[in-house]
Specification:
Layout (H helix, E strand, L loop, with lengths): L1 E4 L2 E5 L8 E6 L1 E13 L4 E13 L3 H6 L3 E13 L4 E13 L2 H9 L28 E13 L4 E10 L16 E12 L6 E14 L5 E14 L4 E9 L2 E3 L9 E3 L2 E9 L6 E12 L6 E14 L2 E23 L10 E24 L2 E22 L7 E3 L7 E6 L6 E7 L9 E4 L3 E17 L2 E15 L6 H10 L3 E9 L5
Antiparallel strand pairs: 1-4, 2-3, 4-5, 5-6, 6-7, 7-8, 8-9, 9-10, 10-11, 11-12, 12-13, 13-16, 14-15, 16-17, 17-18, 18-19, 19-20, 20-21, 21-22, 21-26, 23-24, 24-25, 26-27, 27-28
Length: 513
């Protein structure tokens, strides 16, 4: 498949000017993707390859510095089954390349997917897959690898998986990539009872562990997990998930700064549901997170739901949720300071405790008037607040200890307020009191966010295979900086926010009937 997209231009008026100007905002571009796959042994073995290419032609200098001029990816994959599909082996490999102006490639190196610029990073400067930061680089190469070996059938099952992305791997020109620079490993053992017993219809369990390291060798993710689920004789069901996540290194927590320690947590989540065949179906999930290596974090969340089916034509569903989440290491800002330790490269990385409260209600109504005429409606009111406190910084690179401003090293914290309203406008922090470090100021980080999203879809199949859809969507949202959660205040404000209404009509016509 190949697609050629034309140049697009936009008219605008610069600030202070009385004349309109025109500028290219989208270059001439060609997108190409090819996929080839071949089955062997009656489908028990499949071999495939994929190639993607993107090429752009620029006339706007800003596009040259922000977009890659070309990008290519090439991949091979193998799916292999044996012993009557009892065992499987899957492997995928990919090579990627991006090329362009030095500014565009420098932006790719600075991307949060890889952070080539972070202090203390291990670099390899030789070879095609060099991981050394180079401001004059015009090309970036990377590779990816995925494999899975598993037992797929029987009462006992297992799997082991590897997933790698080199620091230079980049597939965002014709794909999606959230991060690179990792080697992820997983092992799971399954046990299932599918023959009904004296008190159950089926039971499933999973026990496993996973870990991830970056290309510096730092372990930045790890957990041990256990999950089990049982369906009882009366078709009620119960499941529980336990996860132990110790503190690990984190090269992304400082948003481009040095590697630090991300506090761990232990989590238990349980879910209970009633018989899904009944007219009224209930379900409740509760999640509890206990922090490791700190006392400021933790989370409790409740997710109840009820589905009512008054008739075979009508379904009503209500799913409220309440989430109380405390984060001990929420990134706030970075401040230049020549007095800090050299391992922080002249920058203070400021964190805070974030206390979030979130309340939402998912509501669905489905009505089938006739087989050819249906109505579906959905609404989600959403209220959230976030309050920052306990501002702090890491004492050392790769350390668990954090210095809390206003408590450690003689530091002070001053809350800045609006003289007319008394509202908090920000904070001024002196990191060492009478010491040589200069004070710094940052704005108020507290927030309140509210939104309401609703959609209604009327479907009418006016002739076999031909359908009309009438769609109405309304969205409204607003924000403030109170920081505290006040249901009545925020609910009232939500219905005062200006709505955005979108009406759409979509039609299909089946030719040949």
């Amino acid at each position: 498949m190949d697609a050629l997209t034309n140049r697009e231009s936009a008219r605008f008026r610069p600030i202070g000017s009385t004349q309109n100007e025109t500028q290219e905002v989208e270059p001439l571009a060609n997108y190409f993707i090819a996929r080839l796959k071949k089955d062997f042994r009656g489908g028990m073995t499949r071999v495939g390859t994929i190639t993607t290419m993107v090429n752009r032609s620029f006339t706007n200098p800003q596009e040259v510095s922000s977009l890659r001029s070309n990008a290519q990816a090439f991949g091979l994959d193998l799916d292999h089954y044996w012993a009557n599909r009892e065992y499987s082996f899957n492997v995928q490999t990919a090579l990627t390349h991006i090329g362009g102006d030095t500014a565009a490639i420098r932006s790719a190196q600075f991307s949060s997917a890889r952070y080539y610029q972070r202090p203390g990073r291990t670099e390899t400067s030789d070879g095609l897959f060099s991981t050394a930061f180079d401001p004059n680089r015009r090309n970036l190469y990377g590779y990816g690898f995925y494999s899975r070996l598993a037992k797929e059938t029987g009462n006992w099952l297992w799997e082991t998986t590897q997933n790698w992305r080199s620091p230079g791997f980049e597939a965002n020109d014709l794909g999606v990539l959230g991060r690179a620079d990792y080697k992820w490993m997983l092992a799971n053992v399954f046990r299932q009872w599918t023959t009904p017993g004296s008190w159950y219809r089926n039971i499933y369990t999973i026990l496993g562990a996973q870990q991830q390291v970056n290309y510096d060798g730092d372990r930045n993710d790890m957990d041990y997990h256990l999950w089990w689920q049982a369906t009882f004789k009366n078709y009620m069901n119960f499941s529980s998930f336990v996860l132990l996540h110790p503190s690990t290194y984190d090269e992304r927590l400082t948003h481009g700064g040095p590697t630090t320690i991300h506090y761990g947590y232990n989590m238990i989540s349980s879910n209970f549901g009633t018989d899904s065949r009944a007219r009224v179906v209930g379900n409740v999930q509760v999640q509890y997170i206990r922090p490791v290596d700190n006392t400021e974090g933790g989370r409790v969340a409740y997710f109840p739901s009820v589905t009512v089916k008054p008739s075979s034509r009508v379904l009503l569903s209500f799913s409220p949720s309440l989430d109380l989440d405390n984060t001990a290491q929420q990134y706030v800002t970075a401040v230049s300071d020549a007095t800090v330790s050299p391992e922080f490269a002249g920058t203070r990385y400021i964190f805070g405790r974030l206390q979030q409260k979130t309340l939402s209600m998912d509501t669905r109504v489905n009505v089938t008037f006739t087989p050819n005429l249906t109505l579906e409606m959905f609404a989600q009111p959403f209220l959230a607040s976030g309050k920052f406190s306990s501002f702090k910084e890491f004492a050392e690179v790769k350390s668990r200890h954090m210095n809390v401003f206003g408590r450690d090293n003689g530091s002070t914290v001053t809350r800045n307020t609006d003289p007319q309203t008394g509202a908090t406008t920000g904070y001024t922090i002196d990191p060492d009191g009478p010491g040589i470090a200069p004070p710094f100021t940052f704005g108020n980080q507290d927030f309140n966010f509210r939104s309401l999203r609703g959609t209604g879809v009327l479907r009418w199949e006016y002739r076999p295979g031909s359908t009309l859809y009438f769609v109405w969507t309304q969205e409204r949202e607003g924000s403030d900086q109170f920081g505290d959660f006040n249901f009545n205040r925020d609910r009232s404000a939500l219905f005062r926010d200006r709505p955005t209404n979108i009406f759409q009509i979509k039609g299909t016509y089946w030719i040949g009937r």
